[in-house]
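input
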Amino acid sequence: MEENKSRLAYTFYMLTLFLCGAVLFLIGFFPASYSVAEQENSVPIDRPTTLHGEKLEPPPPSYNSYILFLIDALRDDFPNESTMPVAYNKACMKLSLHVDIPTVTMPRLKSITTGTLSNFIDIALNVGHTEQVEDSLLHRLKQRNAVVSFAGDHTWVHLFPTEFTRKAANNDSFYVNDFYEGDKNVTNALESELEKKDWTLLILHYLGLDHIGHVEGHDSPKVNHKLKEMDKAVKKILDHKNMDNYLLMLTGDHGMADGGGHGGNTAAETTVPLYLYSNNCSKYTTSTKRYNQIDLTPTLALLLSVEIPTISIGCLIPEMLQTLSLEHQMYAYFYNAHHLLNKARVKFGHESVRRSDYYVWYQNATLLHKELLRPLRSGDGSSASKVHYENAKLNYLRVAREISGQLSESLVKFDYGLIAVGLALTTATSLHIVLSVLFLDIATEQLHLGRLKLGQLLLSLVVGIILNIVGHMLDQLIISTMLQSLLLVLPIVASVYLTIDVAQALIKIALPPLYSRRLKLSIPLPLSLLACFAIRTLSLGSSSFIEFEYKTWYYLGNTLILLIALKTLRRRITKANVELDGRHLHKIASACLWQQRKIFVVLLLLTLMRYLHRLTSIKSTLMLFALLLFWARLRKFTDTPQAIFNGIAFMLVYSFRGLNGQVHFFVLPQYLAARFVLPVLVLFWCCLALVFVLGYRTALPQQHSSHSLLDGQGPRSNLLKLLQTNLTCSFMLVALLHKVQNIVLLPTLLITLDETYKLCEAYGTTARKFSVRLVHVYKIIMTIFVARMFFFYQGNSNSLSTIDLTPGYIGQTSYNPILVGFFVTLNTYSAEIHSFLYLIVHTLRADLRNVGIIQMLPSYAKAADSMVAPLYAALVMLPAAFYLCLMVGFRYHLFIYSVFSPKVLYDCYTVLVFYFVFLSTSLYFKLFKQDA
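output
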């Protein structure tokens, strides 16, 4: 038992170190800020007032009032004549904006107000809004004592806590079940602000459309209803008596994917409309051009008559400047090009800029601009002046676009020091645990992988300190505080220590003549399993394989099951044929084929699971059948009282979905159905609690029994009973969280795992030389493959836009980040979590006597903590470590942020989820396993 405890502790340490390395890698690969490395006073803040000796006058404010009407998740094709007739028909100009990734709210608001790109890691920081301390339009307006009012998403208030004169923030912005109440508050604030005449800028941020998309999808009937509500709000502004000289900008922070989410890089997510409204539409000309979202910042700065934010790298939107005089338009193009040229000088150096093509364009533009000043001021509209004007404008725009593109590319910065430390730690821990599992019997005695060596630790400490000092001296480790520098020594020392361990072990394995006998693997490695696992791992190097990874898992998973089934069938037929001297071969083959009929049914089920989204017409019947089948499959894990409450809970799950109108149910008025939702959920939680209490009540009193699992008590052991109770309760909760069409996946997962495990046992027992460990290896790898298949069956992908946030808010009336995160994680990673837990429970329950093998020592069930958990952890960590290495090689790839980066977040989070599941399971092993 002590050895098993040490194996669990070792696996825990390896997982912990791996996650520390992954965090360091992500911090180095996605630095928390994208701001260009420049001092605040490096780029001139003030607007230019001279040009080659000629005095320039910045344009005055173009309008008295500015309104930024922001509809969250408003994609470009949503507004039209039927959905938003007033907004669509009365727009002076309709433009489109390209939104950079990540397409989530907080980074988009930063881009709109600062004119710079956001870091991809901002998608993880979207929940914990940090104060925007950098320069922005709001900072500039506050310096001029302009009144800025706001109503809507409280993300703005977190980013700009002191910049608003008046604010009416929606404090429950993340509560996605709120479709209307928050937006009504915004409209009420709008009505109040329209009666006032003191504000310069009014920002409105409506969230209802985004919430509808998350909960019901982009094609929900409520989308059109919400758009009409937004149209009425636009009409309020356009028809109000106080709106005499205004500019209304209707746009979205990001779009909406076809599934209703966002965060990815599809056209529906990265394209938003920009509709302009004014009381003088005649000055605008029609345009269908598309600009970048960051271009809105410098354009608004010119219209507001404030300085362009220092960190802005956006260009101008010429169509929005048409109300300015030609002289002021020319000043606007000059000012933006001048601003970007100064940033280029700071970033690339004066000499580099002087040798560039865009500097020549800038010089030509300024000379033409100077020649134009006198004709423009005198009102000369000759054709020569117009030609000079167009040429100067063209050159200024060319300069701005070229520099903006180069600055955008230069913002991609990597902290190679942290990347190297993180990569070393993740790689070393992965190889260490793989070698430890492969050479399980000799890992401690001969390879010394599980033993702490004081001398090696001291050497690693010295080397780690030296590397830390050298890294700082060479500016490869950029750490802001002394404490962080000291803490960084720990992962460096761990990396060095584990690398020495791995190197020594590989030398001993590769050079057998130096030792008395060759070191042999303790665990058999079937070629077919290794081939499938290797294909899956190597496919990570292709962006197309990552985007369509589900097809890889569907193919490899089904192929592997079919391959093992055919091999087992052949072995059975061969064995029976030999025993009967070749007689009745046809009957033998038929009997053996019938014996494996269930696995072929499973393959058929797995094929059908790929088309769940097409079964909406029978989803009520399908849900009832799935819940009944699920209850029957869980029956073996529960006592009769538990099974009764489990069944009641499943009936309540169906009732909950029926009251929400998702399945057929009793016809009730909407107000009455809404009243019953909360009591139904309360009763469900009561049933769940009773199943939990009954399971623990029957297990815990036996805690001091002299019998143990290995003494023949089997299912009555404390450990097994508790784990089965946990598994049952977790499955019950997931049944509540899953979408209606996905509930059928839960019993199908149990059936697939059961039949796959039986197939693995049959395959192992028909081998010439039986190996318990071979059966374990097959079950572990098949569990991983089945779990990943069901992860994608559920509708998940490697795009962040497919994350379903709705389960996080079931039964909640406000936003609780811990509960939301827990429920969303449990729902998203349901297959991963429950497949591992089921494997542990199955291993503890399994008895190979039913397939003709007498139980042997060490016990089959004992491997749950000594081999199954460590090997499972190794196979989870290894692909993630390999992918981190690929990320470094692909860091300048065209799709690094759109395809590869979301995948790395998914992989690292998968390891984190497994870490917590493993930790909780290990605690039960430590507390309740009684085999001495």
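quick obs: The first helix runs from residue 2 to 29.
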